[in-house]
Structure formats: C-alpha cells, structure tokens
Design brief:
It is a single chain. The protein is of the alpha+beta class and 334 residues long. It folds into 2 domains: 187 residues, Fructose-1,6-Bisphosphatase, subunit A, domain 1 (Fructose-1,6-Bisphosphatase, Chain A, domain 1, 2-Layer Sandwich), CATH 3.30.540; 128 residues, D-Maltodextrin-Binding Protein, domain 2 (3-Layer(aba) Sandwich). Helix content is 31%, strand content 23%. It has 8 helices and 15 strands. The strands form 3 sheets. The chain has an 8-stranded mixed sheet, sandwiched between helices. A 5-stranded mixed sheet has the order 12-11-13-15-14, sandwiched between helices. A hairpin with a 5-residue loop joins strand 1 and strand 2. Helix 2 runs antiparallel to helix 3 and helix 5 crosses helix 8.
C-alpha cells in the first residue's frame, strides 16, 4: 500500500529555507518556538476540563474584555518562549496594553504580533479556539525600535498563521509563498504536512456573520445577507449560515470549503470589533495567499496603516467572488 511521505513542519521550513542561501535561520527559530507554544497550549486546552483553568481570571484585558484563565496562560507561554528565542525584539499582544520587550533582543530583526487565544468566549463550552500570529521585520535594524516599527501595514508581514485547537490541532501558515497546513500527530508530537498549498474556492456556499446584529449593519450588508438567504437554484442559494463566534474556527472552515466571514461596522462598534494587528492582518495575508480577498468595506485590509496597537477595523474576508458581491452591494448603498 502506497503511503504519502511524512513531512514535518520543521523539515518543511528547513527545505524552504534552503532555497534561499542568503537567509539565516532566525525566522526558523521563531517558528520552532511558535510550534512549542502551540503544543503547550494544546496540552492545556485538552486537559482544561480536568483542572482549574476554565472560567474567568478575574481581570479584564486592554480591550475591556473579561480575561479567561487560558487566555492568560497562553499569553504567558508565548511571551516566555519568544524571550528564549533571542530572535524577537519585542512582542505585542491582544492581551497586553504595552509592548513586551524581549530580554537580550535589542539587535533582533523581528517583531511578533499575537492573539494568544482567539475565541476565548468559547472555552467553557468546548468549541474550537486558536492562536493567531503575525511577524514583521523591524524597519531600522541599526536604531532603537520605534512605534512605527510595530505599526506597519499588513503588506509588510514576513509571515502569518494560526493554530486551531479543534478535533485535531493544526498549524496553518504563510511566508508569502502559498498557504500550508500541518496537523499535530499526538503519537510523535510533530506537526505533519496534511494540507499542502491550500487554495480557497473562488466561490463558496457559506456565510458567517452574527445575524443578531443584522439591523445595525449598513444597508448594503443587510441586502447581501438577504441575498445569501434567497432562493435561486441556479446559484445554489440559499447559502448555509455558519457562525461559531470564534474568528479562527469560522475562517478555517471557510478557507477549506469556501465562504465569507463578515464583521461589519455597527452602531455600537462603528469600527468593527476585530483587531487589525492581531486578527485582521494575519488572516488577510493568509486568505490572499490562498487566492481569496479581504476588505474593510473601504480599503484592502493589508493596505491600512495601523495608528494604534489595538486598532479595530470592519472585515469582509473569504472567497474572492463573495467578497466582491458584498462590496458591490455596499457601494450601491453608498
């Protein structure tokens, strides 16, 4: 019986790096630490129901959201491992108000932006959650890092990805040469290539949006939701409504099957809810590398230059034709 060759994430990254002789191993070292963080968080997620790490931590993060215990644990894991890597000058996290400076990293090249545990509201109900990361190269390697080194537009990302802790744990990433998915084999504790060169279908049949806020959406978005729910056999409508309330879970499904995820502006959240640095930019890099699109309704997400560490933007992300459709309807309403 023929078997596909087993390719681990470490091996894959080493093979990719060998294609560029002038590239050193600093980025690979960061990826090794991201993998280790993923394995440690996966361990804690799997035993969450057995030990006292479910529930609220008793504090709120910079966003004013109640922190979950696993949020705090995950954040500490990423910070500790980036400190040890020696290849990150600093880390900015969705959970922290201030920059985390990595000890001894003054001369390091890279900056990490991280959402340590996306979808934490789903922790206590055993739904899929995950970690999202984005890596930038500092702009001025010979000078102290400034705010501008961190507040770069998404088009300058060196790498981005996410780890989803679901029925299986997957590590999905891009460095600008396609999107690749690796599934954790628990028996050998290695991420193994399972989804080479992921491409999102140009058109999908899934729409993901919180319809509880429907009446607060712009008229064009409301019209698009009505369109998705309308009957048209030729266009295979109505589409399926799938919304978990965890960006990483909804995005992952749509990436593999085709669909659109939307978090439009509302009266309560005119700038949307998702953070540009920690969620929108990395997911936009991934979806564009997979052949999809990502837009705020006014601009391509990755062309927005952040003004603040925790800046929020609306987002429409997924299959290219579906994103085009909702933008067309929004433009008609404008």
């Amino acid at each position: 019986m023929n078997q596909n060759p087993l390719i681990t994430l470490n091996q894959f990254i080493a093979d990719e790096q060998s294609k560029f002789p002038k590239v050193n191993g600093n980025l690979s070292s960061i990826f090794r630490n991201l993998q280790l963080a993923a394995k440690m968080i996966n361990r804690d997620v799997r035993k969450a129901g057995l030990v006292d790490i479910l529930g609220n931590f008793g504090e709120t993060n910079v966003q004013g959201e109640e922190q979950k215990k696993l949020d705090v644990i995950s954040n500490e894991i990423f910070m500790r491992l980036m400190d040890l890597s020696g290849n990150c000058v600093c880390v900015v996290s969705e959970e922290d108000e201030d920059i985390h400076w990595c000890p001894g990293g003054e001369n390091a090249k890279y900056i990490l932006a991280i959402d340590p545990l996306d979808g934490s509201s789903n922790i206590d109900v055993n739904a899929s959650i995950g970690s999202i990361f984005s890596i930038y190269k500092r702009l001025s390697p010979d000078k102290p890092v400034t705010k501008e080194d961190i507040l770069q537009a998404g088009i300058h990302q060196v790498a981005a990805g996410y780890i989803i802790y679901g029925t299986a744990t997957m590590f999905v990433y891009t460095t600008g040469n396609g999107v690749f998915g690796f599934t954790l084999d628990d028996s050998i504790q290695e991420f193994c290539l399972s989804h080479p060169n992921i491409m999102i279908p140009e058109m999908g049949s899934i729409f993901s949006v919180n319809e509880g806020n429907l009446k607060e959406f712009p008229a064009g978005v409301q019209a698009y939701v009505d369109y998705c729910k309308g009957n048209d056999k030729a266009e295979k409508r109505p589409y399926s409504a799938r919304y978990i309330g965890s960006l990483i879970a909804d995005f992952h499904r749509n990436l593999l099957k085709g669909g659109i995820y939307m978090y439009p502006p509302t009266e309560k959240a005119p700038n949307g809810k998702l953070r540009l640095l920690y969620e929108c930019n990395p997911m936009s890099f991934l979806v564009e590398q997979a052949g999809g699109k990502s837009h705020t309704g006014k601009h391509r997400v990755m062309e927005v230059t952040p003004e603040q560490f925790h800046q929020r933007v609306p987002i429409f992300i997924g299959s290219s034709r579906m994103v085009d459709q909702v933008l067309d309807m929004m433009n008609k309403d404008a």
